[in-house]
Amino acid sequence: MASWFADEAGEVQAGVLYDFEAVARLGGAYLAMSQADIESQAAAEQPSEDVTSAASDICNTFAGLMNDVRGNPTVRASPLAAFTDAPPLWIDTPGTRIVCMHPGGGTVAFLAR
Questions:
Q1: What is the pLDDT of residues 1-46, one digit of tens each?
Q2: 39 lies in which domain range?
Q3: CA distance 70 to 34
Q4: What is the pTM of this model?
Q5: Nearest residue to 97 via CA among 75, 78, 113, 74
Q6: 100: part of which helix (H) or strand (E)?
Q7: Closest to 54 (Cα-Cα) out of 78, 80, 77
Q8: Cα angle value 9/20/111 (rounded, 5°)
C-alpha cells in the first residue's frame, strides 16, 4: 500500500510504502488494539478499513514532519491505498530511501525525490 506526498502543484515529492503486515501492526498500535487483534490483522490478507485509516493518519503525521523542515516543499499525504497505479518516475532512483522493518514483521519504505 502507498501514500504519496504531493506538493501544492500536485507533483509527487515523496511517499511511504507499507506491506499489509506493517499496515496492520502500525495502524493497530495507533488504535491501541490488543496484541491478539493486531496479530489477527497482520495475518489477514487485507487489513480492516479502520486499521488502514489509522495507518493513513500516521502518513499525515509524516507529511507534517516533512513540512516542518525549512526548505522542503509543502506536501499533503494521500490516503493509504493499494499500490496499483503507476508510481512516480523517480521511484527507482529516489534521492532518499529509508527502509524500516518492524520487529514483529512488516516493512515500511520512505522514499523522496
A1: 999 999 999 999 999 999 999 999 999 999 999 999 999 999 988 8
A2: 2-112
A3: 38
A4: 0.90
A5: 113
A6: strand 96-101
A7: 80
A8: 35
What does the block give as the cell for 71?
Answer: 526548505
pLDDT tens figures, 64-94 = 999 999 999 999 999 999 887 778 889 989 9
Q: Are 60 and 77 in contact (CB under 8 A)?
A: yes
Residues 6+ apart with CB under 8 A from 13: 5, 6, 7, 73, 75, 112, 113
CA neighbor of 59 nearest in space, from 84, 22, 93, 113: 22
Cβ-Cβ contacts under 8 Å for 107 (sequence gap 6 or more): 18, 19, 21, 22, 99, 100, 101
Structurally, the chain folds into a number of domains equal to 1
* 80 and 50 Cβ atoms separated by less than 8 Å: no
pLDDT value, residue 45: 81
